[in-house]
Amino acid sequence: MYENILVDKQDKVATITLNRPDKMNSLIPKMQQEFMKAMDEIEADDAITVVIITGSGRGFCAGFDVDTMLEDINLISMDDLPKIVNSGKIYIAAVNGYALAQGFQISAACDFRIASEKAVFGAIGVLINEICNFCVFTLGQILGRQKANEILFTGELFSGAEAAKIGYALKVVPPDQLLTEAHALADRIKNNAPASLKYTKQALRRGEYTEEDRFWLKKIIAKLAVMEDSKEGFAAFMAKRKPVFKGK
Fold first, then answer.
1. Which residues are CB-contacts of 165 (< 8 A; sequence separation ≥ 6)?
2. How confident is the model at residue 222 (pLDDT cuts 50, 70, 90)?
3. What is the Cα–Cα distance from 149 to 135, expressed in whole angstroms?
4. CATH fold of the domain at 5-176
5. Are 214 and 133 in contact (CB under 8 A)?
6. pLDDT tens, 106-133?
7. Staple 134 to which of 18, 24, 105, 181, CB 3.0 to 4.6 Å?
8. pTM, full prediction
9. In the sheet that 171-173 helps form, which strands lie side by side, from edge to edge?
10. How many percent of the chain have pLDDT more than 90?
């Protein structure tokens, strides 16, 4: 059914595995569409209470595929993260490797994060003249404004151990224990009252990443996309050099 993701359902728990391991599970439009379709199907399945998102190979998700972003930024949807936020299911990110840019944001949108010792997190928007459209509204709620500022303003990467230390990840575990730990957490939740879980989550997430927020950000993202600094940021990223930004 899917080409770029895997979906498994067992005993009230669905697992979505992002599956472009040769590209560190970076998102292309078709993969993002499949991801959203899978979430819609799981949302409609009353037998599922908890959803685990993970990645195949060495990466959780390295963000949007750079070639796609260079081709046409309008191919990228902003509708995947609201599906997690507004879902009646409980989402757990089992982060096995690189979770960068949109991959970082997918992990942030989930209700829990379990990190492998090999996990690497990063909100790299400021390094490529982009904006972390979800995290600018929500990361401060997770970590407090000052820590969120540090992560979003520097673009610096941080480890699974650091994620657990600052409270971004619930815990950090050896790589071979990651999915076991994620399922253990799911087992603690899955048999609780589905309606209570749904409305408790909605109450906790009320007002988070609203349609008004997304409309405003779409205009900002479009403005950034045509700047010279965006071309420089992506060129530097591909060449693995430091960008020289001019504010133009």
1. none
2. confident
3. 10
4. 2-enoyl-CoA Hydratase; Chain A, domain 1 (3.90.226)
5. yes
6. 999 999 999 999 999 999 999 989 999 9
7. 105
8. 0.93
9. 5-10, 13-18, 50-55, 90-95, 112-116, 171-173
10. 79
